[in-house]
Structure formats: C-alpha cells, structure tokens
C-alpha cells in the first residue's frame, strides 16, 4: 500500500485505526506508560560514577540543541552515585551536595523546563552496584523521596540482593515491592528493571515494570568475547550474566525471547554504545538497527559533546527510530542463521535474517553480516515471512525501502556543521522533528525520511538480495506494491 495514493478519508481512517491500537495497548501496560520503548541518555557508559551537575546539564542541553529530544530521546538518567554514602538519621536518602550543588530538585525542574524527563537509579538490594545506599527494605520511603523530587523514571538494579534470587518468584516479589511503592506515590514513574536476565524476567516482569534487562552488561565491542560474559549467545537463560557482553552475544540471547515484548513492557538489551569509539561505523549501524527493530529501549550512553558526524547521523536516523517506536510494539524475530567460512578474528562468521510486522501492514527486514569480509545475502519471501510457502504475503510483490539510504541518513558535512553549531538544525537537510510531525503522520504522508529510500520491488515469490559489508547490516521496510507506482526493478 502506498499511502500517498490513498484519498484523504482513507488516510484518516488508517490514522484512527493506529490510535485505536495505541489505546488498546495501554491496557497491557501495568502503569499506562512506555507504550513504545523508552528513549533517552544515561550517564554510566561514558562517565561511570565520575559525573556531576555540570556534566548533566551539558549533555541535557545537547539533547535539545542536537534535536535528539525531539526525536524521542527525552529522559536523562543519573546512573548511581547520586546520593551520599549513608542515609539520614530517619532513613532517608541524602542527595550528594558536592556533585549537585544546586540540588536534585532544582536539576529536576531544569530538566522539565527543557522538555526532558528526570531519571534516577537504585538497586533492589542493600547497596547499589557502586556501593551507595539502595532500596531493599526502603522501597516506600525511597519512592516517595523520588516522587517529591519530580522523578519520571527509575532504573532499578540487582546488586547486593542478599540472596533473594534463584527462582522467578523470588525475583518477582522483590522487584514488585518497588513497583507498588512507585504507584502508591501517585506520580507516573517509568519503572525499568536492570536484573541482567536473572530468573527470566521476560516471564514475569511485564505485570510490574515497563522494561527488564535480558542479559549481562554490554560493552563497546561487536563480537570480541570476554571472560566477564561467560555464557554464549545461544544461552539465553544465563546463570552468570556477567558484563562485557558484545553486540552479537546479546543479539543471540535476545533471539529466543523477542515474542515477550508488548506495549508497556520491553526486553532491554542494555544501553547504546554508539559514539564511544570501540566499533566501526558499520558495526554501530548494526548495533543501532537491531536494538531498534527488536524494540529495545534506546538509551544512549555516550558523551554528546564528543559525537562524530557519522555517529550523530546514526542516532538521529528517523526511519530506524520509527521502527522502534511503531505502535504495534512487535519485535522483529530471527528467521534464520547460517555459519559461514568467513570468520572474523573472534570466530564469528555467520549471517542472519530478521523480520517483523509493523502497525500499518508494512514489514521490516534486516540482513546481518557477521563475517570478516563483504558478503551477498539473499532471502526468499518465503523465508522472510516465517517460512510459510502458502502465505498470502508471499503471493504479493513488495516495494523495498532502504532505511540507510540517502533520503534518511544525514550527510557528514551537514552533521558536522550542526555539531559545531554552524547550521540551524531546523533547516538541516535530512533532519526530522518527530515532536512536531510524528512518525505515524510522516509514514501516512509517505515522507521518505521516515519511510526510507525507495530501492526496488521484489515480485511475488521473489528473493531479496543485498551486498553487506563486514559486520554490517542492510535494513529494509517492505510495503505491499500498489498499482500505478513508477518504475519497478527486480531486486
């Protein structure tokens, strides 16, 4: 279906249908929040525990100035080390006055005045991972303290849990105490569990939280293994989740549980590493693309004042973000994986094909090249559409739109001028302001910045083929072909 060929009344009907889907989906969210995956920026990957008020405000301002806020990156998360090392005599948390001389409440108000949300961090244990007071046994008191500060988001970790884990019931009940405490404050606070996939949160967390981590901590590598992340990519239920898990490792674990996503609850693959310098341009594109289509929260963990033009262009690609924020909330799934002879230095040499459905009937398709050299990857429509040869979708032809095409990716020259403050973002070629126009409205208008760059058309029962660089990705939106479209070529 090509939206631009529809009469205005038909477009209105489709838009109302999408609104109805969102309203229905809100009933699945335990608190009515996070109907699409969360987006924002977190301090930890770039600064660890070494951050302060100046760093917060500098990066918050960059979210606004670089147009990231208007694409949906609207929460700033203070990740640990935000309080003193001890509680007050009556058990309350004490804000770290040295790091935040203006006070956390003042910072919260400044964020809100900038159109941003205020996110904080704790752990469902005795201490946070950084050794600061955590919330086990203090859930009601801490939840109210945060609500009084104007908090909008809580990342709740799993460190120092005093043995209250080991089966899903134990973990569920421990994290549920904070869930109830947050709701009891009367303030809408998005609740994000960070329990590393411990005790299978995808089986129980959707009724008490808005997202939950499904693996150990990510680090800035595409496929390099680490002793800190002992489970392989095929061990989706890992008894020792660890840390220093690479992108391919986390993708492998996610492949088994993507069906657990729904509006209001998302499997969290951990923060985005884009901009931290440990991966190539193509690797970061793959990382960002796959987190987006699996519907992981898109939480940046970088220094926004040190972004390269290439990394900035990745993070603001509206066609990819629109997939992540699609109201259907359906995660793409891996259709097949093949081990190839072309292995990289870490033993990876596989190719993968993922696909998924979107709210308006379009489909997303991703090809991943995990090998050491460029490869041509092909997949039939039968393989794309769940291997069902008799599927009506296989009997149709599909227009193919490249989500990393020229219409969607900002040029390095333009990106460099924006990062340097030399060009106005509102007039930048390729920039899309989602807060002004909305992704679904842009899709209805067939805006190529969001729909993608038209490539070619795959005929019924045909094959989709693409050249993929080492560790790279091809990402396509497939849209049922309509009569009257211009030139079509087989792909």
Assembly state here?
single chain
- Which spans of ≥5 residues are poorly predicted at pLDDT below 50? 1-17, 484-491
Instruction: Using the coordinates shown, work out and report the CATH topology of the largest domain.
Output: TIM Barrel
Radius of gyration: 22 Å
Specify the helix fraction band. 25-40%
> What number of structural domains do the residues give?
2
Average pLDDT, all residues: 91
Let me know the CATH homologous superfamily of the largest domain.
Answer: Aldolase class I
Can you identify the CATH class of the largest domain?
A: Alpha Beta
The global form is: globular
Which key phrases capture this entry?
single chain, 491 residues, alpha/beta, TIM Barrel, Immunoglobulin-like, 2 domains, 8-stranded parallel sheet, 6-stranded antiparallel sheet, 16 strands, 27% helix, disordered C terminus
Could you provide a short overview of the structure?
This protein has 491 residues and is an alpha/beta fold. The protein is 27% helix and 18% strand.
């Amino acid at each position: 279906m090509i939206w631009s060929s529809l009469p205005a009344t038909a477009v209105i009907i489709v838009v109302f249908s999408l609104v109805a889907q969102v309203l229905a989906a809100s009933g699945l969210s335990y608190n009515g929040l996070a109907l699409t995956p969360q987006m924002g920026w977190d301090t930890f990957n770039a600064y660890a525990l070494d951050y302060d008020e100046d760093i917060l405000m500098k990066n918050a301002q960059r979210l606004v100035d670089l147009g990231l806020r208007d694409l949906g990156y609207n929460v700033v998360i203070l990740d640990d080390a935000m309080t003193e090392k001890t509680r007050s005599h009556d058990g309350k948390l004490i804000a770290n006055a040295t790091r935040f001389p203006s006070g956390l409440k003042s910072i919260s108000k400044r964020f809100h005045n900038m159109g941003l949300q205020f996110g904080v961090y704790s752990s469902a244990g005795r201490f946070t991972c950084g050794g600061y007071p955590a919330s086990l046994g203090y859930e009601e008191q801490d939840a109210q303290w945060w609500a009084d500060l104007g908090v909008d988001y809580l990342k709740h970790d799993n460190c120092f849990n005093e043995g209250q884990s080991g089966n899903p019931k134990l973990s569920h009940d421990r994290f549920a105490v904070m869930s109830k405490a947050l709701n009891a404050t009367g303030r809408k606070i998005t609740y994000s569990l960070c329990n590393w996939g411990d005790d299978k949160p995808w089986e129980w967390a959707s009724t008490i939280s808005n997202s939950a981590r499904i693996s150990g901590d990510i680090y800035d590598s595409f496929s390099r293994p680490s002793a800190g992340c002992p489970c392989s990519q095929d061990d989706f239920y890992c008894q020792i989740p660890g840390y220093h898990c690479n992108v391919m490792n986390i993708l492998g674990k996610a492949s088994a549980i993507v069906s657990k996503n729904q509006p209001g609850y998302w499997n969290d693959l951990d923060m985005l590493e884009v901009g931290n310098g440990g991966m190539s341009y193509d690797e970061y594109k793959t990382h960002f693309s796959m987190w987006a289509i699996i519907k992981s929260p898109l939480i940046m963990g970088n220094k926004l004042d040190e972004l390269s033009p290439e990394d900035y262009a990745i993070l603001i690609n509206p066609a990819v973000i629109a997939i992540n924020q699609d109201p259907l909330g359906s995660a793409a799934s891996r259709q097949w994986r093949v081990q190839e002879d072309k292995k990289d230095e870490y033993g990876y040499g596989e190719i993968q094909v993922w696909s998924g459905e979107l709210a308006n009937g379009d489909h997303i398709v991703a090809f991943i090249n995990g090998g050491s050299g460029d490869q041509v990857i092909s997949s039939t429509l039968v393989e794309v559409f769940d291997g069902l040869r008799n599927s009506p979708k296989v009997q149709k032809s599909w227009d193919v739109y490249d989500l990393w095409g020229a219409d969607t990716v900002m040029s390095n020259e333009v990106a460099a001028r924006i990062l340097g403050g030399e060009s106005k973002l509102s007039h930048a070629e390729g920039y899309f302001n989602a807060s002004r126009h909305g992704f679904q409205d842009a899709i209805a208008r067939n805006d190529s910045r969001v729909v993608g760059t038209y490539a070619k058309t795959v005929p019924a029962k045909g094959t989709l083929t693409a050249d993929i660089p080492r560790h790279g990705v091809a990402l396509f939106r497939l849209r049922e072909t309509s009569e009257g479209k211009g030139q079509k070529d087989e792909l």
